[in-house]
Specification:
The protein is about 35% helix and about 25% strand. By secondary structure, it is of the alpha/beta class. It folds into 2 domains: about 260 residues, Rossmann fold; about 80 residues, 2-Layer Sandwich (GMP Synthetase, Chain A, domain 3), CATH 3.30.300.30. Strand 17 and strand 18 form a beta hairpin. Helix 5 packs across helix 6 and helix 8 crosses helix 9.
Length: about 425
């Protein structure tokens, strides 16, 4: 038991006890948000509710959703103070990526930094990181908390960090071959490119020191065909990893069962709701992920609409952990969904299909125009074969989705 869990008491807690803990923390969080934040006070009053109206967990549905646009507006109008709910010293601040609009600032107190480090250690432990191991941290450090959170957590566990950050593939390969890390953390697309480069140099996964990898920041490790390629190229077990800067950079991961993302429900209340009605979906049904901070001090988010699509299961995992899981990880984002003549396609679906073909090195972008879907990719073949492979893949996807699809290679290797 001691060797399996980072925190056995909380990771194997019964559902009844977990929900009691969640409700206690929720009430405390709602009261402090209502009393200290004019953003929340306004939203509560507009909805005609008060924290005292929340008498059970399911009452959370009475509270309106919080969107990133709400945070941007407060940041623009009040210089972030509308959602900064603490009088304690702020020790760090991180922006969101800005990929969906102007970045939103996120603030951490010492407590926030420490609980996030502990959660990150919990996730890495669940995948197999132990004292004395070496981890090559290929998530960037510059103004992105993922790299820093992993760095701190590895040191908390007692491991050694290679803080290489993102990019610099020759240096990454040098470290893998010479320092011989046991673990790598990276974007899945970046790890694939590392694997291909190593293979091109004559190295096989079986000959590398790597044992497992944690891959997040984009869909990948949860997609069976991509997971398989990562594992073959690098000789590892590949695990899905999830974080959201607005919530915490690293707070959900797979375990050795590879049966879905484990949510840290002691610190975050997880909902999956219908994207149209906002009502909770049934267990195992696809919906939008909504998260509520239960312990964060600096800027807790209540019913935050992430835009990420997932499913949730409450059944105890084979590893013994009792917190809710999302089999298949994050399926996609609402704003990534492509609808062409009524046919709905997520880029992750295209990736899952294409990575089964050995000629496909990387799927770079899925988009559409008036003629149909466009898939930009890089291929593992000679330039003389590009046209033939593009045609084969285009025909395959066109037949599968029953809409026109055009694949085109845009990168030479």
């Amino acid at each position: 038991m001691e060797n399996t869990f980072w925190d056995a008491e909380i990771e194997t807690i019964s559902r009844d006890e977990l929900e009691k803990l969640q409700f206690k923390r929720l009430k405390y969080q709602l009261n402090r948000c209502y009393s200290k934040s004019y953003l929340y006070k306004r939203k509560f009053k507009e909805a005609g509710i008060h924290p005292s109206d929340i008498v059970k967990l399911s009452d959370l549905q009475k509270i309106p959703f919080l969107y990133k646009g709400d945070l941007r507006q407060e940041q623009a109008e009040k210089t972030y103070t509308g959602y900064l709910v603490t009088e304690k010293r702020i020790v760090e601040v991180y922006p969101t990526s800005g990929s969906t609009g102007k970045p939103v600032l996120n603030f951490w107190t010492e407590f926030d930094r420490d609980y996030i480090t502990h959660l990150t250690a919990r996730t890495l432990w669940s995948m197999g990181l132990r004292e004395g191991q070496i981890i090559q941290n290929s998530f960037k450090y510059e103004n992105w908390a993922v790299g820093i959170a992993i760095h701190r957590a590895v040191q908390m566990i007692g491991g050694m960090v290679i803080p290489v950050g993102g990019g610099r593939i020759p240096k990454q390969i040098e470290y893998i071959l010479n320092i011989k890390p046991n673990v790598i953390t990276a974007l899945p697309s970046f790890a694939l490119e590392l694997g291909y480069r190593l293979r091109d140099m004559g190295y096989s996964g079986d000959g590398l020191s790597l044992e497992f990898g944690a891959f997040g920041g984009e869909p990948g490790a949860s997609i069976p065909s991509i997971r398989k390629k990562l594992e073959e190229l690098l000789g590892i077990d590949a695990y899905d990893y999830y974080g959201l800067m607005e919530i915490a950079p690293t707070f959900a991961s797979e375990c050795k069962e590879k049966s879905g993302l484990h949510w840290s429900e002691d610190c975050h209340l997880i909902e999956v709701v219908d994207p149209k009605t906002g009502e909770p979906v049934s267990e195992g049904e696809l919906g939008v992920l909504v998260i509520t901070h239960l312990v964060k001090e600096a800027c807790p988010l209540i019913r935050y609409w992430t835009g990420d699509l997932t499913k949730i299961e409450l059944e105890r995992c084979g590893c013994g952990r009792t917190h809710a899981r999302s089999p298949g990880g994050i399926i996609g984002r609402m704003d990534d969904l492509i609808v062409y003549h009524g046919v709905k396609v997520f880029p992750s679906e295209v990736e899952e299909l294409l990575y089964n073909f050995p000629e496909v090195r990387n799927v770079l972008e899925v988009s559409q125009d008036d003629s149909g879907l466009i898939v930009e990719l890089s291929l593992n073949c000679t330039s003389m074969q590009y046209e033939l492979v593009e045609k084969k893949l285009s025909e395959y996807l066109t037949e599968y989705f029953e809409i026109p699809v055009r694949c085109k290679n845009i990168s030479d290797h």
